[in-house]
């Protein structure tokens, strides 16, 4: 393993799904996105790396059986100093749930939640930079925080990573895009009373697909659910889905594809 290429702090660099049924989940996403799988770092317990053409896309790990936690996707944000970012999370009103801790030679990680309870990860790369397959079908292409109100969330994440906010009314009245080093990195959407009570504030991952309508039908055939039927929006045609364990994600055919 070699030293990872540095990513700009605040840039999304990895996504990981924690579930109760690892084999069934691998089968679902393998059929839906064409992923293949390889073992992950032994230190992380039962964990699989999802691959496209031999390149890492995402990770899938096993939840503790005795905690009753729901399956969910977690986005990891790049940091040059995981320990320093963890301290900033605490000072800004968030919570550090796991870490900082070393993931072998790969890097150093932290699992946090923001003041509204939305869970996210922090990754300080050493030998592993994160997702190496990008842009094509089956790869994560966007990340959005769904929360009650955008402004407090934007203030929190800006404190951590120095994002520059850009309000984007083209995709809703309380929608803000956060840029890192001048490039759009992720977005925050305030839903007010429309925020699902059973989930609360949470991050969502968008995966590129060639045909969102076909992907939604296939997900349902594989035991998942269609939460938001395919529709055209500012970022392209998209649908919101849930896998068989209830983990929510979005499929999108980005504008221009």
UniProtKB/TrEMBL annotation:
Protein's organism: Streptomyces fradiae ATCC 10745 = DSM 40063
InterPro entries named in the record: Anthracycline_SecMetBiosynth, Glyas_Bleomycin-R_OHBP_Dase, Glyas_Fos-R_dOase_dom, Glyoxalase_6, VOC_core
Stretches assigned to the VOC domain: 11-125, 139-254
UniProt name for this protein: 27 kDa antigen Cfp30B
Superkingdom: Bacteria
């Amino acid at each position: 393993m070699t030293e990872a290429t540095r990513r700009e702090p605040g840039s999304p660099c990895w996504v990981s799904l924690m579930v109760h049924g690892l084999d069934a989940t691998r089968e679902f996403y393998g059929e839906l996105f064409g992923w293949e799988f390889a073992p992950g770092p032994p230190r992380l317990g039962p964990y699989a790396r999802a691959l496209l053409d031999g390149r890492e896309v995402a990770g899938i790990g096993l939840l503790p059986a005795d905690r009753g936690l729901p399956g969910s996707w977690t986005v990891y944000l790049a940091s040059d100093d995981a320990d320093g970012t963890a301290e900033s999370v605490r000072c800004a009103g968030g919570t550090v749930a796991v870490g900082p801790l070393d993931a072998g030679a790969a890097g150093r990680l932290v699992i946090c939640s923001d003041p509204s309870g939305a869970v996210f990860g922090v990754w300080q790369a050493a030998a592993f930079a994160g997702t190496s397959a990008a842009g094509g079908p089956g790869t994560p292409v966007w990340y959005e925080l769904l929360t009650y109100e955008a402004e407090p969330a934007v203030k929190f994440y800006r404190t951590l990573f120095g994002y520059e906010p850009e309000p984007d009314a083209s995709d809703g009245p309380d929608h803000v895009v956060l840029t890192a080093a001048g490039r759009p990195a992720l977005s925050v959407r305030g839903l007010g009373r429309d925020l699902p009570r059973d989930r609360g504030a949470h991050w969502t991952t968008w995966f590129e697909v060639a045909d969102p309508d076909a992907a939604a039908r296939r997900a349902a055939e594989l035991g998942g659910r269609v939460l938001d039927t395919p529709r055209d929006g500012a970022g392209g045609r998209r649908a919101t889905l849930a896998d068989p364990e209830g983990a929510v994600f979005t499929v999108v055919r980005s504008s221009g594809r």
